[in-house]
Each structure stands twice: as structure tokens, then as C-alpha cells.
Amino acid sequence: MNIIVCYKFVPDPEDIIAKPDGSISFEQAEWVISEYDLMAIETAVQLVEAHGGKVMALSVGGSQLSNSKGKKDVLSRGPDELYLVIDDALSESDTHLTAQTLAAAIRKMGEFDLVICGEGSADLYFQQVGLQLGELLGLPTINAVSKVEVADGKLIVDRSLEDEVEVLETVLPAVISVTTDINQPRLPTMKEILKAGKKPITEWKLSDLELAGKAEKRIEVLNVRSPKQVDRKRIKITAKPDEAVQTLIGYLSKEGVL
Amino acid sequence: MAVKDLWVFSEKTSLQAELLAGARTLAEATGGGVAAIVVGDETSAKAALAQGADKVFWLGEKADKLVEDFVPTIAGLVQSHKPCALLIGASKRGKAVAGRLGAALDTTVITDVKKFFVEGDVIQASHLIFGGGAVRVEKSATETMIATFGLGIFEPLAADPSRQGEIIQVPFIEPKTRWTLRERKPKPPSTVNLAAAKKVVCPGRGLQKKEDLDMIFELAGLLEAEVGATRPLCEGLDWLPRERYIGVSGAFIKPDLYLGIGVSGQAQHTVGITESRVVVAINKDEEAPLFAQADYGIVGDLYAIVPELIKALKARK
């Protein structure tokens, strides 16, 4: 089976700097594969290991996607081919434009049986792209998938809801978004890292694709600020363990929380 | 705003009540009405009126359908009435409905909205991005803003069964794609309710091995606290179930006491603890960001401090 796995390349949220004026900056940030998409990649690789076929990784975004380390990183995690849509117009894309672009790229990529997305991106975490993509492609689509099985052209999934697990079935092709606990992604081996450099990469611009509508966003961002910090007392106790603990207990009983 | 009505959809009754209350507040600013989209029996349609809806679009009983199968029906309704906003309950199911609706209506969705307000005559929504590292305010570039809201954003109104309103029956539109439900499996009942906990003890990556959780649970027992955790302990190390995870894609807590043990204090975690009344940090790294967000901090090795704390609390009993 041919599986397309979508991933996002994001500034590492841990590298974000809150500036004194309340604005934020990720100029210093390292760009990485969005953490939750690693589980989507692993799901695709495991399915192809079990059923044969190939994994095609697909990402759309701004110029950071050209980063050769990033390309090698995704290919060393098991996908056989890489497809990228790189365009400045995609660098601050919303979920609508991302899903539209992914849909257009997928239509151009040819035959596939299954599209897998992560739960949400590590930067914006809208948890929307997989669902919107499925709807745009006119395919069965579902989120919160915590287990996947394929048999006789059918897809059977466990869907982990708040209070129950649904076992659902549909006919392939389909688009699914997998949970962050569906698997434990493996680390790339040295062999895979060496192989990654030889795998085929296809790069497109937006103008190479036929989007269903104009390449427009549907959300207007009005402002971005670092969250208001709660005023805390910030009393630091530096003493021997037994003394420090007694001091803490003193404070906590005054607060009435013991 | 051409049409000023606000619509609400949630398959969860308690969340529907909260969203209706939120929509009512905003409707005062827009000068519009509030409608609920209801899947269920006639009693549930009437319940939505009692919860604050002026009007109910009643989609009929769910029967053997999934809630997601109603997407084309809801999309048709939105297309013909064009409300200024559609508020959807942010359950997994609600997010699936919202995403598919967004695509079907050639728009998108703002998820997990924290604040929802009108400025000028524009509806704005704020939510967290970068794992809680930033707050972003957005507006929809299309006529209808679709947004999802979790529990606890709005206070529900007291149900008023005497409230009257129109109930409009809406015929079902068959979806093009379907999932067949083979089975429903109950999730093991959750024994953890972090959101309601008065005290929470939270270990982080400073903990070296799984067995060391024993002393954390012992400490929690003495404090009558619930045990939470940072994400790596629940996903990755798998030392604790995911329901104990506090942070951006996990639980948001508001206890009287939060005690972070070996927790560094990354924004992805601390976003979930900002509503704690008293925050305590224990960490050997004096530079740990959690100290800046704590009321009291002990700089020291948790393996020395926690046993002392257990001893001291036992002595107090």
C-alpha cells in the first residue's frame, strides 16, 4: 500500500523567547519536525513494513523546508520518498491554506491508499489539518486514531474519545489523524541516516499546483503576546534539606494549604 | 456583520449549556439571537431552549449514525443562514465536526478558544500557541467564524424550563463518506480527576527512575493530594497514564497547592498550572524556570528534600 504521511516543520517551541515588551521571538529557534508528526511517520512506516508498499512524506511551508538537515531527518525515519511544497506564501499559513495546499499536492502525487497526519502541530496545535484535508479530498476522515489495522482494502481504527473507544471501519483510501500515544517513534539508525541522502526528493512551488481556490488564509492574526505571568512570591529557600523543609512547611501552613 | 446570530453545537449537554451562556453574552454585543443545533430526541431539543437558546435547529435522533455524519446537514444550515459565529464544543468529536465543516464551508476553525469577545463590530478570539508560550488573538476572514471551546470557558446559565422558542426540524443530508461503527469499548474508568483536585504533587524529569514514583505517591498520600506529571513521564517514559499529564494538550488544573518536584518549568507544562493558588518548586537547578513562577521554592536535590518532607509531614500527623 502507498501511504502519504504529512508533517510540519516548526520552530522548536522550547526555543521561543519572550521579550520584555511582551512580544515573542523565535529567531534563535532551531527548526524541527513537529513532535506529534513523528508518531504519524512511525505509523506509516509500521504499516508498510507489515503490508508492503511505500511511504511518501509530504510537507508544505516556507523557505525553512529547504533546510537539508530537515530533509535528511525525515527521510532517516523511514519514508521512501519526500515531497515538499516550498513557497514564501506558506510560511505563516493557516490550517485552511495548509490543507488546501496538501490536497493539491496529493492530487499531483498520484495513487495512494492512506494519508496519515499527526494530532496537531507543536507550534499552533489547531488539530485541524488532517480533518480539513480529508474533507477537501472527499475521503473518509477521522481524528484521535490510537490503533490502525488494514485488511482487504478496509481500514479499521480505534478512536480514542474522552470517555470511550470507538472501533470504526471504512473503505480505503482514507485520511486519519493519529494520537500522540499511538506508538513510540524509533530513533533513526546510522544505516537509515546514510540511506536518507540517496532517497528521491520532489520540490514544488505553489504555482506548480492546482489549488481548488486562491491561496488565501481564512484567519487574520491580530496580535501575538507572551501570556500574562501570574504574580508569584518567588521566595527561594536555600538551606540544608531538613531546615529547608521546615521553612517550607511554615510558609505552607500560613497559606492554609496543608 | 450582516447577520448577528450566534449558533452553538455540542454533542455534550453540559458543554452545550456553557456555550449557550457564552453565546448569549456575545449576542448582547452583536444584537443578534442564539440558536442551538441539536442531534437527539425532542427532549434534548427543548433542553437547549431551557439552557438559553432562542431557537433550535433539531436534526433528529442519532439512531445508528455517528455525530460526524451530520456534517453535510450542518454545513447546509450554515450556508443558508450565515450566522456570524458557530461555537462548537471542543471534544474530539466536536473538533472532527468543526474541521470537516470548516473545509466544507471553504473556511477554517479557531480551536480551544480561551477568550471570546466583540471589539468594534468584529468578533475576536484568543487562544494559546507555541505550547502555551504565546497568546494569539485572531478573527475570521470569512462571514461565519467557526470556533471550538473546551469546558470551563463560560459559566452555564441556570436551566429555565419555562423559556420558549422555536424548534425547527431539519432533514438529514446523506454524507458522501461514512465510517461504520463496529464496536464501542469503555475506557477504563478514570481514577484521576486533576481538574477538581485541591492539591497536586507533580513530578518532572528530575525523577530518575520509575520506582522513585513510590515516594511521590507517599508524599501525595500524606498531603491528600492527587499526582499529576509533566508530559515526558506520561508519553515517552510511560511511567504514568496520560490522564495524569498537566499541560497544553493535557489537564489544566486549579488547585490550592501545586508542588512541582524536579519540574523544570517549560511553558508547555506551566500553562496548565497558572490558576493554582500556591505554587511550590523543588529543583536542584537554581536556574529552573519554574522558580520564577513559584511562590516558594527549595533549591536542592529532590532525593534529599522529598524524604525530609515525608518525614516532617508524618511528624505533624
Can you walk through the features of this model?
The complex is a heterodimer of chains A (258) and B (317). By secondary structure, chain A is an alpha/beta fold. Chain A has one domain (2-208): 3-Layer(aba) Sandwich (Rossmann fold), CATH 3.40.50. Chain A has helices at residues 37-51, 68-75, 95-109, 129-137, 190-196, 241-255; strands spanning 2-6, 9-11, 17-18, 24-25, 31-33, 54-61, 81-86, 114-117, 141-151, 154-160, 164-171, 174-178, 201-204, 219-225, 235-237. In chain A, the strands form three sheets. Chain A has a nine-stranded mixed sheet, with helices on both faces. A two-stranded antiparallel ribbon of chain A has the order 2-5. In chain A, helix 2 (68-75) crosses helix 5 (190-196) and helix 3 crosses helix 4. Chain A is globular and about 65 Å long. Chain B has two domains: 6-169, HUPs (Rossmann fold, 3-Layer(aba) Sandwich), CATH 3.40.50.620; 194-316, TPP-binding domain (Rossmann fold, 3-Layer(aba) Sandwich). Chain B has helices spanning 13-30, 42-50, 71-81, 92-104, 213-223, 231-234, 267-270, 302-316; strands spanning 6-9, 34-38, 55-58, 85-89, 109-110, 115-119, 122-129, 134-140, 145-149, 166-169, 180-186, 199-203, 226-227, 257-261, 278-283, 296-299. In chain B, strands 5-9-4-1-2-3-10 form a seven-stranded parallel sheet, sandwiched between helices. A five-stranded parallel sheet of chain B has the order 13-12-14-15-16, with helices on one face. A three-stranded antiparallel sheet of chain B has the order 6-7-8. The interface between A and B is large, with 85 and 87 residues. Strand 14 of chain A pairs antiparallel with strand 8 of chain B, so a sheet runs across the interface.
